[in-house]
Amino acid sequence: MTRGAPTVGVVKFASCDGCQLSLLDLEDHLLEITGTFDIVEFAEATSRRSPGPYDVLLVEGSVSTEEQAAEILELRAQARTLVTIGACATAGGIQALRNWADHDEYRRAVYAHPEYVASLATSTPVSSHVRVDAELHGCPIDRGELLELLSALAVGRRPQIREDAVCLACKRRGVVCVTVARGIPCLGPVTNAGCGAICPAMDRGCYGCFGPRPEANMPSLTGSFLASGGTRADVARLFEGFTAYAEPFRTTVSDLRGRGPEEDADAQQ
Predict the structure, then answer these.
(1) Whole-angstrom distance, CA of residue 216 vs CA of residue 171
(2) What are the E-state strand segments in the chain?
(3) Which of 26, 96, 100, 259 is the most buried (most CB within 10 A)?
(4) What residues in the chain have per-residue pLDDT under 50?
(5) Is the pTM of this model over 0.85?
């Protein structure tokens, strides 16, 4: 660490820790990172603790409890730059599927003593609660994009994060389109690139882990799925994954499932 280095905190809410591990997976770059930044809070890697302030705060996980809803407000006040990392923090994560269901029923089905589980009825992204300065998408995030973000923050420039569709990543890798060649439903046309088109390269459709890309043409894609013989429930299920609660995936799921605006409002309480 150099004197006067920017202070960095890494915290988590409801998540699996996978995005934090992506930071540790930077391997050869770790010494450079620790020489550039002063990591003052990162429970996954160090016993150092700091309530802030932070020059940079990386937040993993969705807001799923009252305590987390209060804590993110405090953390925002202590952070000069707040960056959400991963599908849980940016879109509510796979746990946001409960936003369309009966929360209490879920708890009763899973836990022997649901009364001990203090959770909110919804799982929401950090941006639903505080201002977010930057987002890294994915489940987990891409190490290259994380390194680009840190490099940009170190020198005070804007991160160069691509906003291409997964389809373009397939073209760059020479991956044959699974939809055209095999009729496999794929969310690649409406999903942010960043994963390197892992699933299509393994002969599977994209699951939308990196979330909806800007100006995603949802009517066109859902229309093609329905025209190919998929039922509305089948097509809705394609979007009900890691980033289901991110717009416009969320509206698409609600429309396909026949949820009205009143029900959607209730789900966000």
Answers:
(1) 18
(2) 7-12, 38-42, 54-60, 79-85, 134-136
(3) 96
(4) 260-269
(5) yes
